[in-house]
Amino acid sequence: MTKLWIDADAIPNIVRDIVVAAAVRLKLEAIFVANKRLYLPESPLLSSVIVNSAPDAADNYIKDNAKKFDLVVTQDIPLAHMLVPLGIVVIDPRGEVFTEDNIGPRISMRNLMEDLRNAGEITGGPKQFGEKEKRAFAAAFDRQINKLIKIQQKN
Questions:
Q1: What distance in Å separates the CA atoms of residue 124 and residue 76, rounded to the nearest whole number?
Q2: Taking a C-beta distance cutoff of 8 angstroms, is the pair 146, 2 a contact?
Q3: Per-residue pLDDT for 86 more than 70?
């Protein structure tokens, strides 16, 4: 059965709420992975894993435990780059679905932007998370979950 894996160190609360509601409604296990304690509603379907504070500890835990046909929510493009070839569905909190076709260009752009930030050419962070991003995530998440459920029902 599909599991939901959430890279929860920096996930917006509204994205967490959307995942929680879907997991409970669809009876899917959701595992939130972070380096701090998370407060989740009581449900046997919801769990959290606390990893150490080492860089990429949450990413490594997800990479080591997610399986084909699972769904991962992360904004970490290198993690997505490792998971997509394994048949794991990956969505970022803004609703972008990472695929075999777009993950290569996305990792290249991420690396370029990191180099520019390190050189001081670019400052500032990502755009603010608002209603548009919330709707984009909810729509992409719903589409991908429904696809995964249909695939599993056929098997």
A1: 18
A2: no
A3: yes
Residue type for position 34: A
Ramachandran area for residue 120 (φ above 0: left; ψ -120 to 50: alpha; else beta): left
Residue 70 has pLDDT above 80, yes or no: yes
Average of per-residue pLDDT across 86-115 = 86
CA distance 44 to 96: 29
Each domain of the chain, given as residue ranges in start order, spans: 3-154
What is the pTM (predicted TM-score) of this model? 0.88
Whole-number Å distance between alpha carbons of 154 and 22 = 21
CA–CA separation, 89 and 79 (whole Å):
12
- List alpha helices for 66-119, DSSP H: 77-83, 103-118
Interatomic CA distance for residues 26 and 62, integer angstroms: 21
Which residues 6+ apart lie within 8 Å of 61 measured at CB?
Answer: 33, 49, 51
* CA-based nearest residue to 127, from 101, 82, 100, 92: 92
Domain range 3-154, CATH architecture: 3-Layer(aba) Sandwich (3.40)
